[in-house]
Write a structure and sequence with these properties.
Shape of chain B: globular
Strand order of the largest sheet of chain B: 1-4
Radius of gyration of chain A: 19 Å
Oligomer: heterodimer
Number of helices of chain A: 11
Helix content of chain A: over 70%
Radius of gyration of chain B: 19 Å
CATH architecture of chain A: Orthogonal Bundle
Number of strands of chain B: 4
Structural class of chain B: mainly alpha
Structural class of chain A: mainly alpha
Helix content of chain B: over 70%
Largest sheet of chain B: 2 strands, antiparallel
Number of domains of chain A: 1
Strand content of chain A: under 5%
Chain lengths: ~290, ~325
Amino acid sequence: MAQFLQFALSGVTVGAIYGLVALGFTLIYNASEVVNFAQGEFVMLGGMTTVFLTLVGVPLAVAAPAAVIITVAAGLALHRFAIETARGATPVILIIITIGASIFLRGLAQVVFDKRFHSLPPLFGSDPIHLADASILPQSLVVLAGAGVVVILLGTFTGRTLFGKALIATASNRLAALLVGIDTRRIVGFSFAVSAAIGAVAGILITPITLTSYDVGTLLALKGFAAAMLGGIGSAVGAVVGGLLVGLMEAFAAGYVSSAYKDAVAFLVILAVLFARPQGLFGAAKPERV
Amino acid sequence: MSVRRVLDHRLAVIALVGAIAVALPMWFPSAYYYRIGALVFVYALAALGLNLLMGFAGQVSLGHAGFMGIGAYAVAIVPAQFALPAWLGLLAGAALSGIVALAVGRPILRLKGHYLAVATLGFGLLVAIVFTNETRWTGGPDGMTVARLMLFGRTMSSAQSWYWISAFTFIAAATLALNLVDSPTGRALRAIHDSEIAARVLGVDVAQKKLAIFTVSALYASVAGSFLALLNGHVTPDVCGFLRSIELVAMVVLGGTGSVLGSLVGSAVLVVLPQALTVVHEYETMVLGLVIMGFMILLRHGVVPTLAARAGVRWT
């Protein structure tokens, strides 16, 4: 039982980060139908920028927000210079463009930063907190709290503000949104900015636990994408639940089966779920129009 | 026949590729260039298979490198473990890839769009994980050496011989692909691409046609993987990694989905570019990303279809 709890705690921690990456995917997908494979690079940029700012003596309290702002700038630039200029291209072309962007950002990080692994000091030290028979790092609680705050803020924003409602309108029908006077281009740009911010926050939160380097983005994008699909693309609830599930499956597979095959177990479960529910857990089945 | 009619004939593409393959070595200053040339044709073969699936049937696969991996490890394991010739390994790999494609394809191809993408991605990942962890058979993450191919009593080890083998195989595969596209199956696939429901209403067995083309594309990738392993004399799990699958998709889209010549152009760009970019040292990855973005923004239907449309040529 102690083991079970231990695996569950570590699974939820990693799962919260996957959930945030999946949420970033979902936001951009809803606004523009683009699957942004540079989402993982936002996580990397958040973590790496914070690390290097603190290395040159900037206090963490300043470095972290600065890293988020820099990542948001990268997200806006990606939208303005790549997605916007390629307007009207098919979704698969746009996907390749975001893959190009992720390669570019990885290359940029190699040049500006370096190729080594880096860490950040955990916010509340590294003495584990004992919980029943299991122990949890204080930073894991920070990750969970941070992820919770992001989800609540995003939920409040989209549900309560005019801009947020415009975002929902754009997601459900872009043409209709345009016709009632919503500037859908700004909405899409905004979704890139928010996704970048969410990614950066995820990167800063997780770096003290899992370390970061210029190439952590690929695996995170892959897991986040899988999580978003498991939840059902387009569903924000699905993204978070999918992320947590992928994290938990990995942790249990690593603990009870074998750590080498943890990704295999996670993907086998995802495949099994998709075979049973081709639209994901929370996705709505859309009939094809002829 | 007028010049236009000749250019529009589908075999013009084959003639063009053949001419390029024969003419290029005249400007090759060293064996290194033969090696790059061989790599271009090998990747073009895998990309062509994927292009049949993406361009004609409209189904995406983010796990096609998995089949390359099966082909690559087959030519490595069969001679090493069973003391059988490498060409038998190539056939065994192709057979296994075909069987796996048939088995996996049936449930996976029921999924659509991004769900299909994530399922194929999962498949590719599973293959890579198995090859990485079954160290006893595959040498684990460090990979294993591949015995040279013996053909007609001669060892195929020079880059030059592999250039000709891969160029010839690509041309044969391209001929097959062009004939397939013009067959009833090809027309059925294009109908599926336009609208699955409309195709079904017309009496097309959608599931069976999709499965058929998925299997063919798996065979192309498997043979390409075998060639790659034999050419390099070494194989590591990187051959079937996620990035390799992405690279194949990028080759197809960059060259032009649905264009046979496009597969070759896409492969040429993405094989030659990283080699050429070594001159800019640490900026290599950055420039590669920028070039991919630039190509897709400026030539959004892919290099070959965009240029062909400008030149007024129909067949690509």
